[in-house]
Design a protein that fits this description.
The chain has one domain. About 75% of the residues lie in helices and about 5% in strands. The chain is built from twelve helices and two strands, in the order H-H-H-H-H-H-H-E-E-H-H-H-H-H. The protein has a two-stranded antiparallel ribbon. Strand 1 and strand 2 form a beta hairpin. The longest helix has about 35 residues.
Length: about 260
């Protein structure tokens, strides 16, 4: 049997393009970018803020709340919506293996997270270039970080930020395999994320929760834009390791549950 992951992925993308939720997410984060731009211009000193700094601040604010919610909601609906309406049973009646169906859903969630990140970055950089300047990070004493060094750190921050977002997608899909109704899956996903986020400091498990690292790369890059000493290591290794562990465990657990699930009930 030929691998059906790519055809299934194309089908998932086509379905996502026809729905309103992805576009609504893109619209909301674009509006949020504009609001951040307006507020930043009114409360911060533009002379001490460059376009790099504005972009890092905007990306941090987007993915610590609204962006995180939309990605989690989209991922948590991917399988629950199919099982609720019985379409998963129809698809799996064709020569499609469950792991192929599951993998296509995972890739769809990852693509949506990447699209949210790219669109947020494009809007943020466009707004940043309108009111600020991209260039060397300097103070009254002269250049601190060259434009090339800042750009390298910018690209690192952008691509590294995808790793904890991937863990978020895996978590949403994992919940989607447990809860049969899409609305309930969304509620459970968002509710548990906020519950864990509010209690992780009290319990002392902050370093072991992947949501801690969602804004980490942009926080480090923000230090670069401010011209202060920055340090990626060793924290970046913790972020990568913890996020990948969550990705692997949640992917395996979700696939195991979905493979044994009775989709006829």
């Amino acid at each position: 049997m030929s691998n059906m992951v790519i055809p299934l992925l194309r089908n998932e993308i086509a379905k996502a393009v026809r729905t309103k939720l992805p576009y609504f997410g893109f619209l909301v984060i674009s509006i949020l970018c504009v609001l951040i731009f307006i507020v930043t211009g009114s409360i911060l000193d533009s002379e001490n803020l460059n376009a790099w700094g504005y972009t890092s601040l905007s990306m941090q604010l987007i993915f610590t709340d609204i962006g995180l919610i939309f990605i989690a909601v989209f991922a948590s609906m991917l399988i629950a919506e199919e099982t609720a309406f019985g379409t998963a049973r129809v698809v799996l009646s064709c020569p499609v293996l469950r792991w192929e169906f599951y993998a296509a859903k995972v890739l769809t969630g990852l693509l949506y997270a990447a699209a949210m990140s790219v669109i947020s970055l494009i809007v943020s950089t466009c707004l940043g270039s309108w009111n600020y300047e991209f260039g060397d990070v300097a103070d009254s004493m002269g250049m601190i970080y060259s434009n090339k060094e800042v750009l390298v750190n910018f690209l690192m921050a952008f691509f590294l930020s995808w790793i904890p977002l991937a863990a978020l997608v895996m978590y949403g899909i994992f919940i989607s395999t447990i809860v049969r109704r899409s609305g309930q899956a969304v509620a459970v996903t968002i509710g548990t994320i906020y519950l864990i986020d509010f209690t992780k400091h009290i319990v002392g498990i902050d370093s072991y929760i992947f949501t801690k690292y969602i804004g980490f790369s942009w926080q480090v890059f923000n230090q670069v834009t401010q011209g202060v000493d920055y340090q990626w290591r060793p924290q970046v290794w913790y972020m990568i390791a913890m996020s990948l562990v969550y990705c692997f465990v949640l992917f395996a657990a979700g696939l195991a549950i979905f493979s044994r699930r009775d989709i006829n009930g």
